[in-house]
Amino acid sequence: MRVVVQRGGRRGRRAGLAGVLWGAAELTVTVGVVVLLLVVHQVWWTNRQALAGAQEEVRELERRWTGPSGPSAPSGPSGPSAPSGPSGPASGGSDSAGAASGAGADRVPSVSGSRAPAPAKESAYGVLRIPRLGVVVPVAEGVDKRAVLDKGYAGHYLGTAQPGARGNFALAGHRNTHGEPFRYINRLRAGDELIVDVRGQRYTYVVGRTLAETGERDTGVIAPVPRSTVRPEYGYDEPGAYITLTTCTPEYTSKYRLVVWGTLKT
Hints:
Mean pLDDT: 81
Number of domains: 1
Order of helices and strands: HEEEEEEEE
Shape: elongated
Number of helices: 1
Low-confidence stretches: 72-85, 93-116
CATH architecture: Beta Barrel
Radius of gyration: 26 Å
């Protein structure tokens, strides 16, 4: 009697290996699609969402300012003093991480200034215009990541000067994602204008100096007389009315800070 031997063991092992490889390929594709969607959401959708919201906030501020209870329009190169007012400069990068970003950057000491009341924390009260870059963005009180910066606003460091006042009107903004209002401030040059409107008053600052890279805890860049504590050859020596823009650098990171300074035009 002849016995027939089945030789399916090797084929079975091959089929099993093929199934494992196919499953791994499917998992890899699925993970890739999920990651791609997250990147699209973070880089594209948050920009559209924040930009649209910021633009609507600018329109709302301007409607309030031109309404029956407000002045007719911003006027003049400068106006009366506003209240003046650091932990390190807040992050404006893709993730706004670090002790100097978001809520941590709100903890800044106050300095002497006008007796006028400060704006409500985390509320938009002004508009920053950067003609060279085509930027028009709301200014809100504080630099909390979620409540201010992620809305596409420029955040005012608590405790620093208000627009038009002596001292340093210091702002933070995202460089990437969430409207990225400060993405191209590295392109600003000496002589470019930075215009701040606050309920019927217009304050025009002129860019004077830039600092391409400093540490996230460089508190000197937003001091009343701004001067880097990391790179002390950058900054100013005399009291005056300054503006400071801070954001992250390099792009899509929060490792360092990029700084632009200007002085009030008189």
